[in-house]
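--- STAGE predict ---
source: upstream dedup step, 1 unique chain passed
mode: sequence only
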Amino acid sequence: MTTNNFTFEIDDDGIALIVWDMDGRSMNVMTEDAMEEFIAITRRIAEDDAVKGAVLASGKDSFSGGADLSMLESLVAAGRRAEAEEGRAAASQVVMERGGILSRTLRAMETCGKPVVAALSGLCLGGAFEITLACHYRIAADNPKGKLGLPEGRVGLLPGGGGTQRLARLVGASDALQLMLQGRQIKFPQALKMGLLHKIVPAEELIAEAKRWLREEADPIAPWDKKGFRIPGGLPYSKNGMMTFTAANGIYRRETLDNYPALRAIMSCVYEGLLVDMDTGLRIESRYFTHILRSPEARNMIRTLFLSMKQLGKGARRPANEPPVEIRKVGVLGAGMMGAGVAYVTAQAGIEVVLLDRDMEAAEKGKALSHDLMSKQIGRGRAKVKDRDELLARITPSADYDDLKGCDLIIEAVFENRDIKAEVTRQAEARLNEGAVFGSNTSTLPITGLAKASKRPENFIGIHFFSPVHKMMLVEIIMGEKTGDHALAAALDYVRAIRKTPIVVNDSRGFFTSRVVATYVSEGLTMLDEGMPPALVENLGRMAGMPVGPLSLNDEVGLDVAYKISAAAKADLGEAYRPGALDRILQEMVVGRERLGRKNHKGFYDYPKLGKKSLWPGLNEILPDPKPADAFDYDEVKRRFLTIQALETARCFEEKVLTDVRDADVGAILGFGYAPFTGGPLSYIDTMGAAAFVAQCETLAGRFGPRFAPCDLLREMAEGGEMFYTRFAP
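--- STAGE serialize ---
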């Protein structure tokens, strides 16, 4: 028996070897076609008398990355159609019936009376891991890259193939919740210790060992189906169980501020499921899965954090007519923290780097960052000394522009000063080949203006990294007025080579990310000026869904950087510039008190050498007298934070800085952490509806000023009942 995705062969002992090996894919994923074939295979295992047992294996380096989430998106769409035609109850029935297929299939396989072994060669995540949990025996190849995990919570989902029930029964509620709530991936040796694997063997012995177990030790009954089975760690109402769920709920609230219903549902599935038998527990899980799958949080997070991110990473914004650009050598101008970080990720991708600064001492200091980062990887067992040596050999520190000869790409990362940037542009371009591309890492200065120093503005482009470079996954590509398709293609091919996600925006002051996140910081400072206690400003920023409060974010970026940006904007805009609380507070903090942020250990927070940071007590000296915390409407404050950023994003579309919804939502979440549970600022607007969002803006504008006034585009969309994901669909 051979299908498009699996092979099925029975040996003389009646053992069926089922190999999952999808054509045209580097990794197996559970698609609709693969699901149909898998259902047929499990039915044959149960019904074919010639089959005495089965081995599930992979024909690739990994077992599987899990389900193709576009399959779930189509299921959500089917639910919406059913709701429109037959009502909410019918829609839930449709989603539960189709969404529960894997769970029912796995339970049928688990109870068919024939033993099944999962033979894992490498990565095994999500729905694929749920398949293995329903097998009676799990062995893995000795592979340092092999990992297991249920990461569904990271995209607003919960495991729907029995994962919440089987995992909790295997390792107990405490360990199961830690794995699922954090979306952790654990390596095979740890999985063996936890009891998720039965054995690890050399790769060449994997299938032989699986068949040996089937011949000599096979047991076709899962532990939880045997009389007398006891759940590790005890039941939820036991002393240990009460401690587990009380702590888990507290951690959930602390870490998520109750913004992620899927994670809350995971806890409910485990708690309620462990009080009943397996079949009832699986039905409980299916009901929660249906409810969460139909939630706006799941819909938006799947679309943004999986589908859109995947499309952008594969070159969705790349000019189709441009041939591939091979980036073999990159010159990085400026060996400060940003330039040094760019050099590290570039060398990590196997690309030769020239790291240039004003003198060799500065250049060598920049290279040292790569040594430090690799040494940390070695200390954690994630790299070897050989890896560090090879990476460092690819980075050439230099103070001589002639070393840039032969570079395919230049990335300028010097100070945010037009004159300095113009000088290094002229010096570098004089050494470059005709087709080489010059990229500026500026975070706010318009690319069109910087390109005036270039003799080849068609090959001049913005390549904006985020700090710290080695951790942040987004790169913002900025098109100047004269930037050509070759430069865009080269920039996107480079970003793909270093395994980051690119977005493409058009030129403006602050582009998209810096421009929008500035509204979050500015709104926080305005709240301080209104008398809101600093701690309340910070906490409500996080409660709105942002990763850190606006004061913490300002400290991380640098108060002096924000001050210089506002000063430059004021100089460029002249009378059109509208000063606010930000200008006054930053003037006092930076100029009056020399508080620059984390970089000099004093900003809105104090940063002691030992111990945690704390809000600077001296804030009271430069702010109005604080009002009582209960003088503020907390929900309104959270709306202010999310609305001001979403409104600025809409303005970016109106001004054609943004032209693709994917760039907006992916860029906002990866670039500055816009409340991920919303799916991004445009998903936030679309979920609410343009008319409701315009009404919310008008209410806030009436209370807090014209900065909240909705733009013409939003009013037009509200009148026409339009959504961003239809009007600006890719």
